[in-house]
Write a structure and sequence with these properties.
It is a single chain. This protein has 340 residues and is an alpha+beta fold. Helix content is 41%, strand content 18%. It binds dinuclear copper ion. The site of dinuclear copper ion (CUA) has 9 residues, from loops. The site of dinuclear copper ion has 9 residues, from loops.
């Protein structure tokens, strides 16, 4: 093997070894029951298939050695018959049984894991997620319409409480994937799918659309916040409040511009005249870590850049460029910053 070939062979292994297996978007670092089950079966398959691979390579090496040594044939066997080789026949029989046993083990375990993924624990939290090109609408149903939380691109979950996520799509097929919590589930137009998750670790996680759904498929991410039940209740209560109208100044002017321009034709801000639902609900925009479905962090500069040139940030996005003067843009951003 040349030095270049050796380097090419070793690089991915080195990268794999050096890369941390911990993170906010990896199935190798489970943060919930379902992902832990998937992690278990993944490791089992790795060991079983790894052992099989080593055995196959071992036998191949043995066969090559035997062929090289050469064995004088006494007489060529009659057509349809081979020389009896008891050792070889015994090992072939053993090998076949090993393969059957390995397959039965993997099929049984994968059946059991599959069943466990669909199980929901007691009193699950209901979350509805609707995929759009290219963002996630997130709803928490309540007893009354006034008790329903609507947000976007961010899912809050109380730790140690099972949740059932209802998955729908508004346009094309998407796939919901928060690898630290569970596997992938498709969101299919005209169909409702369900996913059970039971988060077990506090902290932020990240999810991503895992089915090619158009130009901005790669920028269709979402944040998952796993928090204490108290923090979750506080978040829920805050999300239910309408936005307070700014008393005056640039923020009040920004609100006026927002309501009277095309912004208000797509977005909803509870407590304002903007009440549409074509785009993400912005009532509590500043409580979210990212904008444009994970495309940018939620900072003043990124908000301004996104509004000034949506196609520059996410080419193909249905969000149009709203012609605003520099001053109006600045005031609209100031208004958005009041939406805590
Ligand atoms: Cu939505 Cu890919």
């Amino acid at each position: 093997m040349s030095r270049a070939a050796r380097a090419a062979w070793a690089t991915p292994w080195l990268a794999f070894g050096l890369s941390s297996c911990r993170g906010v978007q990896t199935m190798l670092d489970p943060a919930g029951d379902q992902a832990a089950h998937i992690g278990d079966i993944w490791r089992l398959m790795l060991w079983v298939c790894g052992a099989m691979y080593l055995l196959v390579m071992g036998f191949l090496g043995w066969a090559l050695l035997r062929a090289r040594r050469g064995r004088p044939e006494a007489e060529p066997p009659a057509a349809g018959h081979t020389h009896a080789e008891p050792l070889l026949e015994r090992s072939l029989r053993g090998w076949a049984s090993l393969i059957v046993a390995g397959l039965i083990l993997l099929v049984t375990v994968s059946f059991l894991v599959d069943r466990s993924l669909a199980e929901t624990g007691p009193d699950p939290l209901q979350v509805k997620v609707t995929a759009h090109q290219w963002w996630w609408e997130v709803e928490y149903p309540g007893k009354t319409p006034q008790d329903q939380v609507v947000t976007a691109n961010e899912i809050h979950l109380p730790v140690n409480r099972p949740a059932v996520i209802e998955l729908k799509s508004q346009d094309v097929i998407h796939s919901f994937w928060a690898p630290n919590l569970s596997g992938k589930t498709d969101l299919i137009p005209g169909r409702t799918n369900y996913m059970a998750v039971t988060p077990r670790r506090l902290g932020p996680l990240r999810g991503q659309c895992a089915e090619f759904c158009g130009l901005q498929h790669a920028q269709m991410a979402f944040d998952v916040v796993v928090e204490t039940p108290q923090a979750f209740d506080a978040w829920r209560a805050a999300q239910l409040k309408a936005a307070e109208a700014p008393g005056g100044g640039p923020e009040a002017h920004g609100k006026q511009v927002f309501e009277q321009s095309a912004c208000g034709l797509c977005h909803n801000v509870q407590g304002s005249e903007a009440g549409a639902s074509n785009g993400p609900d912005l009532t509590h925009l500043m409580s979210r870590a990212h904008i444009a479905a994970g495309a940018r962090p939620n900072t003043r500069a990124d908000l301004a850049a996104w509004i000034a040139d949506p196609q520059g940030v996410k080419p193909g996005t249905p969000m149009p460029r709203v012609p605003l003067s520099a001053n109006d843009l600045k005031d609209v951003v100031s208004y958005l910053e009041t939406l805590k």
